[in-house]
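Design job #97: recover the sequence.
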């Protein structure tokens, strides 16, 4: 596929690209690959089925993804993560044999025993228990057992990051609305640790999950949380077939809240992105005064929507693609016979940088992450953005940093670090860099985090710096942030120190 558009098409492209550019020539032979794959499956696939899977015309399952991971030599759950994320992004439920679990047999009893002994479980083990919980709620009907299960699950969610966080989200979706009362309290007391987990409610069914989104969005007024509530609420209302009319009497409150968030240029830019999308989706009428205010910040709104000249977009994507070809030709990952032209890669670059919707940009970068050449692509992208993207195009800078962050490759952090030490016009770029460094190293990134915190001009960025400092174990920096004049950032740092 030269232009994969839908999330599951992008996933199929990813699987095909990993195999087509694999350094083992036998892996590229479909017959050999099929035989190797079937050793890890309880079904026998045919070479024709492999071709259909890689073209997007046949369905993957979690089990098929795990078999592909083994034969392709990928890290555990790399493809499972992408498949689950793409399925949900496309409005589908990921397929897995665990969905048929309806009895607490030997495997499930052992998992429950380990849970009772406070032993850690993997995300797939949690998912298996989640399906048991969903199919046989009587198994965990005892209130203490049920509460332990839900609290332990949210403990894991609060400590997860990137890939693990996305997989835990699927566990929460499977468990359903029973987890929401506890999640509501966790979000209220520790919003930065749990705000992304709230997205799970947008994929649940029933009135409780919709009300959860409404109550938190209108009740908390925390930018980090707002960023991950408005899009799931839109998703829920769309899935319910009611659209903006489904907000009923809440519509005026949501309109006013979204306008307030959008008007505050110091707010989390992710919240402002979603507020703008929410207002456009709801087609809300604005007063002349409100229109005038939006006109005053129209440049910033264009940055939020990544509204760039078509020629600029085309030229930047072309420059990144050409640099990628050059870097790939010089890379040790390009073995003999490796094609340097990669059909479809421009789609990922374009969608990751310029899609107007936040979720679509994130999907593009998540879908290309497990490809063993994604680190080369990240280096190429970082080089071009550092050289060719002006500081006034801070919307593109933010999108590039987020793209690089989702790759979770060590080499992709290098251009992020370089950008962090450079002169930045907009504080939201510092925020994205600060978040990215949470996956960095204590030795290399503590000084940069301190620099970002000292040069930050908004509370949002200081809060993110505090969270990343905690992830890196940069306790002296956290202690300094806890003493700052910024009350909200200091409170965030104090909470994180308290969890040490």
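Job complete. Output follows.
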């Amino acid at each position: 596929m030269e232009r994969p558009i839908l999330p599951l098409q992008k996933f199929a492209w990813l699987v095909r690209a990993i195999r087509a550019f694999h350094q083992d020539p036998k892996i590229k032979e479909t017959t050999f690959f099929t035989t190797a794959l079937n050793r890890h499956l309880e079904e026998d696939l045919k070479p024709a089925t492999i071709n259909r899977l890689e073209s997007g015309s046949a369905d993957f399952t979690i089990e098929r993804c795990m078999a592909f991971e083994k034969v392709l030599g990928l890290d555990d759950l790399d493809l499972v993560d992408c498949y689950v994320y793409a399925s949900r992004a496309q409005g589908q439920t990921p397929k897995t044999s665990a969905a048929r679990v309806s009895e607490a047999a030997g495997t499930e009893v052992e998992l429950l025993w380990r849970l009772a002994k406070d032993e850690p479980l993997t995300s797939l083990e949690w998912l298996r228990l989640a399906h048991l919980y969903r199919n046989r709620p009587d198994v965990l009907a005892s209130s203490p057992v049920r509460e332990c299960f839900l609290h332990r699950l949210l403990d894991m969610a609060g400590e997860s990051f990137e890939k693990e966080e996305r997989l835990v989200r699927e566990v929460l979706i499977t468990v359903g609305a029973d987890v929401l009362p506890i999640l509501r309290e966790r979000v209220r007391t520790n919003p930065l640790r749990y705000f992304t987990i709230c997205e799970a409610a947008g994929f649940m069914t029933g009135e409780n999950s919709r009300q959860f989104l409404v109550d938190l969005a209108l009740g908390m007024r925390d930018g980090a949380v707002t960023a991950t509530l408005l899009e799931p609420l839109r998703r829920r209302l769309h899935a319910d077939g009611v659209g903006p009319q489904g907000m009923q009497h809440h519509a005026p409150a949501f309109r006013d809240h979204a306008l307030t968030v959008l008007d505050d240029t110091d707010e989390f830019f992710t919240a402002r992105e979603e507020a703008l999308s929410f207002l456009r989706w709801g087609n809300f009428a604005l007063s002349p005064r409100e229109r005038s205010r939006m006109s005053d910040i129209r440049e910033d709104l264009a940055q939020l929507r990544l509204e760039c000249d078509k020629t600029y977009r085309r030229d930047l994507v072309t420059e990144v693609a050409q640099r990628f070809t050059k870097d790939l030709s010089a890379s040790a990952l390009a073995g003999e016979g490796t094609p340097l032209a990669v059909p479809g890669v421009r789609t990922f670059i374009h969608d990751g940088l310029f899609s107007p919707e936040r979720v679509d940009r994130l999907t593009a970068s998540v879908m290309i992450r497990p490809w063993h050449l994604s680190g080369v692509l990240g280096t190429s992208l970082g080089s071009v953005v550092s050289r060719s993207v002006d500081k006034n195009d801070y919307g593109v800078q933010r999108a590039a940093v987020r793209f690089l962050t989702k790759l979770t490759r060590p080499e992709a952090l290098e251009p992020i670090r370089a950008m962090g030490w450079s002169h930045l016009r907009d504080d939201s770029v510092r925020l994205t860099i600060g978040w990215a460094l949470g996956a960095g190293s204590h030795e290399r990134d503590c000084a940069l985090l301190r620099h970002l915190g000292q040069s930050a001009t908004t509370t949002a960025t200081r809060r993110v710096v505090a969270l990343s400092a905690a992830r890196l174990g940069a306790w002296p920096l956290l202690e300094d942030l806890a003493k700052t004049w910024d009350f909200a950032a200091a409170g965030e740092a104090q909470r994180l120190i308290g969890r040490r």
